[in-house]
Amino acid sequence: xxxxxxxxxxxxxxxxxxxxxxxxxxxxxxxxxxxxxxxxxxxxxxxxxxxxxxxxxxxxxxxxxxxxxxxxxxxxxxxxxxxxxxxxxxxxxxxxxxxxxxxxxxxxxxxxxxxxxxxxxxxxxxxxxxxxxxxxxxxxxxxxxxxxxxxxxxxxxxxxxxxxxxxxxxxxxxxxxxxxxxxxxxxxxxxxxxxxxxxxxxxxxxxxxxxxxxxxxxxxxxxxxxxxxxxxxxxxxxxxxxxxxxxxxxxxxxxxxxxxxxxxxxxxxxxxxxxxxxxxxxxxxxxxxxxxxxxxxxxxxxxxxxxxxxxxxxxxxxxxxxxxxxxxxxxxxxxxxxxxxxxxx
Length: 345
Ligand code: PEP
Ligand code: MN
Known about the structure:
The structure is a single chain. It contains eleven helices and 14 strands. The protein is α/β, with parallel strands linked by helices and about 350 residues long.
């Protein structure tokens, strides 16, 4: 892959293309983010790297050469003022769906006080039943932005279709691609051209290679800020909503430079199991967690059965800090830690 300097005049890509064509070289132009042009061509990267228009040259092996561990050291992906992938796990928590101003703001305040790093909540909801609550849409995005204004927590929320990417990117700090859309290739390309980090959830039926190839779709459009999220896969086991594949986390850490998160809520479907799986996820090497928390789980419009109470989440945060310290990866520092330290804690 040949990456051209973004500042080049508009005719640089066609000129380079003409040079490749006249040399009899097959190539493909990739429509990347605004101002960025990539060319894909066979051939020895050394032959292109000397060209003045070329900023970077990558030799791509297989379906996920760019996100492969071979390409570079661990990536750090921003989440508001935090960074994931630097060895200090970040905890993203919140309700499955944004339901009302009081619900999301109340949740956000409790989560911030407990030391969460970011707020999650769906405004666009992918529901199995067309009769189930579908989310508040744009209004939900506004409510998330309001909760961020009150608490300072950055916001992670799902985008379900390419036409919604601009609106969601305007309000969110990280764009979530849900399990059902992991192979929605036009959506992957659309978030690849966006200027916001992406949280890509593993398809519930996806192999690890398919998961990495999906991330490559995003990376190839210019967006390098990608976090992977293991959220459980479908197996023969009916007692859990999904089977949380922590083996995949250990393997992904070796296969890719992208940070890897774990979602123990969708990974089990059972609130009582979430703390156990969350602790295990930090121990196995997760760079972050996505945890569903609702002020009143029994009244939640979606996923109440797997949602923790804010008080349960606060207890869990203490455990996660202990596990993180035990494995040499304490949680990312927050304002709550600073306040406790200055109080002599
Ligand atoms: C969610 O995070 O609420 C969600 C719908 O997740 P998934 O796509 O993993 O089911
Ligand atoms: Mn959910």
